[in-house]
Amino acid sequence: MKPIKFSREETKAIVGEIQDYFRDELDQQIGSIPAEMLMLFFADKMGAYYYNRGVYDAQGVIRERIENLTDELFALEQPTKHLR
To answer: Residue 59 to residues 4, 47, 54, 63, 76: CA-CA distances in angstroms?
Structure first.
C-alpha cells in the first residue's frame, strides 16, 4: 500500500477537525503543528486499518451487485427442453 498522502486543503481541513475535537471534547487547545503531527501519526499507524475496511466494504457492495445481476440474467433466460 502506498503511503496515505493528503492535499494541502485536505490536511488543513483534518487539522481543523482535530483542533475542534480537542477544544470541544477535551477542553484543550492544540496548535496546528501538533495537530498535523497527530494526523500524520494516525495516517501512518492506523491508515491501513481504515483503508482495508474500505476495501472490504467495497468488495461486499460488488459481491451484492454481482449476485443481483446474476439473478436478473437468470430472469431473462427463456424456457427450453435442455436442463442446466
So the answer is: 21, 18, 9, 6, 26
The whole-angstrom separation of Cα 18 and Cα 35 is 6
Kind and range of the H or E run holding 42: helix 32-76
pLDDT higher than 70, residue 11? yes
Question: pLDDT at position 74, please?
Answer: 87
Backbone angles phi, psi at 46, to 5 degrees: -115, -15
What's the CA gap between 2 and 4, in Å, rounded?
A: 6
15-47 pLDDT, tens digit each:
999 999 999 999 999 999 999 999 999 999 999
Give the DSSP H or E segment for 30. none
Cell readout for 33 is: 503543528
